[in-house]
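A note from the maintainers: we've had questions about how concatenated examples are separated. There is no special marker in the raw files; a new sequence line simply starts the next protein. For clarity in this README we add a label.
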Amino acid sequence: MIIFALIGIYLMPILCVIFCLNLVSILKKVKHEEKTTVSTFWLTISFTLIMWSIAMLPAAVTN
């Protein structure tokens, strides 16, 4: 649980920047009909870590 608290506190800004950059990259690639596999993978990973950290942060703080 502590790892999610650390991710939530220290890595959340980095994850949010990665999420936004990959989202913009995907939008540009879709416009030019290019492959979006790698950007989609990193977008999904960063979004999952952001949401999981937000969900687990209250549990880590209360224990």
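[label: protein 2]
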Amino acid sequence: MARILITGTSKGIGYDTTLLLARAGHDVVATMRNPGASDLEKVAGEARLPVTVLPLDVDDDASVARVFEKVGDSIDVLVNNAGILSINAIEDESLEQFQRVMQTNYFGAVRCTKAVLPAMRKRGSGTIVNVSSVAGRLAVFAESAYVASKFALEGFTECLAQEVKGCGIRVALVEPGIVDTPMSSTSLPDYDRTSVYPHGRRLHAFFTNPGKPEAPPNIVGEMIRHVIESDDVRLRYPVGPDALSFLGWRASLSDENWVGLGGLERDADYFERVFMDTGVDLRSSR
């Protein structure tokens, strides 16, 4: 069994993945900004699971250094999961929010990766799993801050995989579609409702669509477990009932047609085209 450090475990994918891996017998170091705001430690303790909860802010160099000094060289697997979502057209999004999203989703993973690499390299083994998104491979309007951070994470991970392949370190990208987490439901970020752009409204429809397939966070946890426990050497692992269909939809369109689709003026025309292309009916989500 492995000793696994996971970031962003207060809720959603990180929370479910922690419990899933601990129940499978792994020793999990679950990190989050504010452990007092989550019941993960209590739930794991009551079930007598091998989970250690530590405070970690992936945005902060000193916080990352403190945690990795404490766990030493014991981490076999790093799961970079911490992430935030923002929804706005580019003109409406503040520069500070662009920076905040990039700081957590991209630089947070870079910080933690750099912290574990020396020990893994010296040991000649280790696994790094970066939780990206299908938005790391297809650019969707009104989430440019998020998309940019995930595109950056995908490029970083592909470079990393090449560099450490000869050191015995495995690297993987897990790419969820829309998953039923607080970030995509109860805590779904709002968009500027005074915007002249329709795109925040349209993107919200993908998340609020009552007909979207059920996708609990543990499906991502199961994929992460597969990466950790199997000999599967793929770099990318799309996961979720809509992940492959979204990726296939984008691949079926030229860049020009993708831009033209996003540029349709009327919501009704956009929703009708999405339904024709994918079978996803967003018309009742408005």
